[in-house]
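Bug #77: duplicate submission created two jobs. Keeping one. Sequence:
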Amino acid sequence: MSTGALFLMGVFTVTVLIDMPIAFGLVLSCLAYLAVYDTAPMMLAAQQYVSGLDSFTLLAIPLFILAAQLMNGAGLTQRIVRLCAAIVGDIRGGLAVVAVLACLMFGALSGSGVADVIAIGSLLLPAMARSGYDKGFSCALVGSAGAASTIIPPSIVLIVYGTITDTSVGKLFLAGIIPGILLGGSLIVVAIWQARKHNWAGGALFSWAELRAALVDAVPALMVPVLIIGGIRLGIFTATEAASSAIVYALLIGFFWYRTLSLRAVWESLKSTGEGSASILLLIGASALFAWILVAEQVPQALSQLLVNWTDSKTAVLLVLTVVLLLLGTFMEAIPVIIIVAPVVMPVLAHYHIDPVHFGILLSINMAIGANTPPVGVDLMAACKIGGINMMQTLRPLTWMMLAMTTVMLLLTFIPELVLYLPRHVQ
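Kept job's structure:
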């Protein structure tokens, strides 16, 4: 690896260690590299930053965020939680199972782990505390389930990955369905086991009448994933156009079906969307600049050659990349990791004939695990803030949840057909 690449990563490491915001650290390390090595005019840094944002597909990010905000304002979150509670009934640990199911369902609306944790956690964490659930367990479960929901379409993480690697976002959305269900299932197993072990309460008694009423009330919310996935797969619209359609749909059901959406709520949704989108796009531009320098320093070629000289096994390469991603995920957020790592590993994927759709899902699961791993752990941090506890209180129950998610990731690594079946067979 060249001295320039080592200098770039060294400066960035220092910015991380001094707790500088990731976006600023990426830009500063790039500017320091250009100042010291003078390989390109400084003006190119601004051009590459803007170029990283110049993508029609990336418009889907603020649009999906706005759609989720509007749906939350229209009361879809409460209806999803009610439906999940009606399905689960009074089984032991029912509230914990409801939390996982609600996170997965809301994830199919929002595409954002943090938004999922805040929306579902605000409703269920107080209820779980009143029912005697350990707060550390509850926060760890909601944080993990919220992160797992980012694998389910419409995932912002998958949109970013698809844009950077020129991989079909529609195929990535389909590929995320089975892994998302498996991740949710693994967390439900942990939740039921822990609930039985500690004798935590279930929910209300199961009632067919309540289930029918909750299902009818939640049908408009359940139609959102059908609208998005169906529209993309049928070629009616792109991922970005699907996001726009979701906004129109949210406005229609909020104003005219449920009649719970107000102009004030729309304004608050627009403000929240602006703030959330700005932070994400700031990271994307900075990460694109950083990745541009890595490519210019031929880091992808060096990594590819290193792995080729070490092994011929595709599975071994995936496991090595998994370890690297898990380490990166402990101190960096998902989007900068994706934008930095994806261009670097694409030549490796091509050499070993690894499907980029398969790798994209594995990368996303790695980032979901990282979103609950200290010291960063943004999803876990959001859940702890809502639950009013310190992150350290979640570590013991969190270990079991991270083990369950890692087991699913390894299963998908060794059986890629679990990821690729729907993209290959759904036309």
